[in-house]
Amino acid sequence: MSEMWSYNPESHYTPGTSLAGFKVEATDGHIGKVDEETEEVGSSFIVVDTGPWIFGKHVLLPAGTVVRVDVKEKEVHVNLTK
Questions:
Q1: Which helix (H) or strand (E) holds 69?
Q2: For residue range 23-48, what is the model confidence (pLDDT) as tens digits?
Q3: d(C-alpha 1, C-alpha 26), whole Å
Q4: Among 11, 5, 3, 1, residue whose Cα is nearest residue 66
Q5: N vs C: which end of the chain shows fewer Cβ within 10 Å?
Q6: φ and ψ at residue 32, rounded to 5 degrees
Q7: 0.85 exceeded by pTM
Q8: DSSP letters of 25-65?
């Protein structure tokens, strides 16, 4: 269960990298931007600001849902659908 709350080594996430402001892409399209994040061992997550997409909500996603971090494009890809 703790792997859900830890970044996957294959995601190319480097500890200490700020993801704030990165675009968040689901398997079926854009869902928002990273508002905040944590790097706590076994309890890491990102908070996504969905903007007007679902009435401006903030959604907490466990770090284990992150499949790829693209620092060059400032994108975080998650293995979830909208």
A1: strand 66-70
A2: 999 999 999 999 999 988 889 999 99
A3: 22
A4: 11
A5: N
A6: 155, -160
A7: yes
A8: EETTEEEEEEEEE---TT--EEEEE-TTTTTT-EEEEEGGG
For 42, the token pair is: 């076994």
Token pair listed for 7 = 């970044």
Amino acid at 62: P
CA separation for the pair 48, 57 (Å, rounded): 8
Please state the rounded mean pLDDT for residues 39-64.
87
CA distance 79 to 60: 14
Q: Six-digit token pair at 51?
A: 């903007």
Amino acid identity of 65?
Answer: T
| Residues 44 and 36: beta-carbon distance below 8 Å | no
Average pLDDT of 59-79?
Answer: 96
Average the pLDDT over 55-82 and give the result: 93
